[in-house]
Amino acid sequence: MADLPRTLGLPDFPWDLLVPAKRLASSHEDGICDLSVGTPVDPTPEFIRAALAEASDAPGYPTVIGTEEVRRAILRWSASRGMVDVGMDGVIPTIGSKEAVAWLPTLLGVRPGDTVLVPEVAYPTYDVGARLAGGTPVPVDPTRPDTWPDATLVWLNSPGNPDGHVLTRGQLRTALAWAREHGAVLASDECYAALPWEVPFVDEGVPSLLDEDVCEGDPRGILVLYSLSKQSNMAGYRAALLLGDPDLVRPVVQVRKHSGMMVPAPVQHAMAAALVDTEHVDAQRRRYRRRRELLLAAIAAAGLEQDPQSVAGLYLWVRDPAATAPDSWALVDRFARLGILVAPGDFYGEAGRGRVRIALTATDERIGTAAERLSLAARES
User: Quick check: pTM over 0.85?
Assistant: First the structure.
């Protein structure tokens, strides 16, 4: 049993490899600034906690498809983003978005011999989900469908984790045209869409694959995932959603019924409350913007470079322009010696080599301390 992950063809869990760097960073006299993982640290808004509590008398089993309340809230939220109306049969709550990413290939019937396309710089779970289903993950440039091999399922992630890249409406249309021509399901993970930092996305919003003017009002072959973890600090609730083509959602629901993939009823009620309120989302975005701007200034002072295409999301995507050869781990070590833990770009694919991912999910105090350490080290060098 100890070798089961290897039997399934799964890679080592990446963050286990960060233990030595974490040990080094933790030895700093003023403690570690852990910016390696995107785990929210700010309080869950009080009105969401109240909604959870008021629904806590839940002696019966919840339904897989979700309550009418939460599904209507999902539809209202999607309409507010300009997404096509997929109807009540086209939406379900999920147990966080990682669960949905990991199991969607299996739920859609991906089998050995099937190819699943994943972004060349990507959250590792897209790769893992393909392997769990017995499929073959193939990393591709999401902006170049003309280079893609035939596939059963294609993953997009916009804004991207870790790189913060956003696919334009034109790029989304091109990807969708390719998927329909090749008979592939196109799945888009959009869990960072509430965190745009640069124009035009600050003004216009991050485009969705289900936008009316992207899919031309037709959701066929499309699935979109979204999470309340980042926008609402609900990571501990495992509150996310899937919406899209009802003809794809229905069979996914049937398999989830057999496997007991149910979002707890109190969480569904809290989700419904969170989805219809925009004020708390705006407030959280402002917190992350302040932290981002503070870190960006310190990164620049340290002679490091933020990816200019990193325009949304929860992370900085940084490299050392003075390095003679791309080496993510050398940069991880450089940060760790300052008591700052970051994630190496290698965790996210070969195309990430030479960069590190820096999360904005730490307290104001720890973010400020990390920025001070970087700026001080730059002045002393």
Answer: yes
